[in-house]
Amino acid sequence: MPKIITDLPGPRSREILEMAEQYEPRSMGDQMPVVWDHAEGCVVTDVDGNEYLDWCSGVNVTNVGHCHPYYVEQVKAQCEKLFNCYDFVTQPRAELARKLVEITPDHLDKAFLVTTGSDATEAAIRMARRVSPGYEVIGFDGAFHGRTLGAAGAGGMGGTKRGYGPLPPGFLQAPFPYVYRAPICKGKSEEECAQACLEYLDWVVEQESEGRLCAVITESYQGGAGGIIPPKSWMVGLERWCRERGLIFILDEVQSSFGRTGKMFFMEHWDLKPDLVCLGKGLGSGIPCSAVVGTSEIMDALPPGSMGSTNGGNPISSTAALTAIEIMEREGLAENAARMGELFEARFLQMQETTPQLGDVRVMGLMGGLEFVEDPGTREPAPELTRQVIWEAFQRGLMCIAPIGLYSNVIRVAPPLVITEEQANEGLDIFEEAVAAAVKASA
């Protein structure tokens, strides 16, 4: 449980933050002024000894909890044996590839290991282009696939594009069914919005394509844009739309995989069968590891030397991922995420009844996006209020990341999947106090 023993930020945190400000670029997230020191399970301790409940999990990374004893033990043992061997085969890498094939849908039978989410989405796009006669890739407004040039080109968030000059050609953008806010969805029901976005795909192709379509890439839910969960009919319809046109369907599950949404993979909820699946974050559960899992038809078309990675699938990251998956399966963490998600959603909906500024509640397992507005009628974004809620929560010992969303008015809720009911209720009590205090301060 939280324990705050100093003013925040504490003196040691202030000292280190000043050093970071002097020597690091300020290009990273504008987080709360705190310096993490160590963590265990769902509890983070800063350099001043203050303890916080964690609603960040490194943005869906530490799914098995911080410093799980078995995870630490297995990684330590591998560190004593071998760190890196370029792309020579090791037992951990081969076993991880086999494990990923075993736990994903049956049609996916090969796994390519890399390091980051951006690596995975870039690799999937390259694979699709290598085997397809076309090269154009359709992405969606609001999508975040990474900050490298190809991933940013496929994405649909202005913050990853502006100021960096021309992005690679060959990407088309279509509307995503952001039911609460997208212009194409205004005044429509969820199903009407889904249908309108599907119909608009043909218009995009007619008006923007050179006739060289290759693939479609989408996040399972849009994380950076605010935890936006699409209607099932849209996702199922999108997969069907790809099949009818012979396009490769790439599903970006970097954020949504490994128990986060209440199942091991998001695609299990709706029986999706993508051709390529991008995995990351929770796969390594702390040590960088990502992967593309796909069909032999695509992956066997890549000749030796055409795609590799210096650190991808290294023995330490492979061991970490194998251990994390073992923990998830043994401890039933996807099931715990589903149970705790129901608790979180119920409490957030209760808060919404008495807090009109909480405009939209989006929860799936232990993925939550809470969108704050100035007025529920106009839905004008409330970024200042959102920031104040996070500050008030921080002061009470609840750690959230900086606001997300297209207008910086969404709070991401993503605790480690090991969170207990007691910790969940404690965090929710703190959050409710924080919202009330922030609303009062802004009145």
Structural notes for this entry:
The chain has 2 domains: 11-60 and 332-442, Aspartate Aminotransferase, domain 1 (Alpha-Beta Complex), CATH 3.90.1150.10; 70-331, Aspartate Aminotransferase, domain 2, CATH 3.40.640.10. 39% of the residues lie in helices and 15% in strands. The chain has 13 helices and 14 strands. It has helices at residues 11-23, 57-60, 69-79, 91-103, 117-131, 149-154, 190-208, 232-245, 296-299, 315-331, 333-354, 383-395, 421-442, and strands at 36-40, 43-46, 51-54, 110-114, 136-140, 171-174, 213-219, 248-252, 276-279, 290-294, 358-364, 367-372, 398-399, 410-413. It starts with 10 loop residues before the first helix and ends with a helix.
Main traits of this protein?
Aspartate Aminotransferase, domain 1; four-stranded mixed β-sheet; seven-stranded mixed β-sheet; Aspartate Aminotransferase, domain 2; 13 helices; alpha/beta; 443 residues; single chain; 14 strands
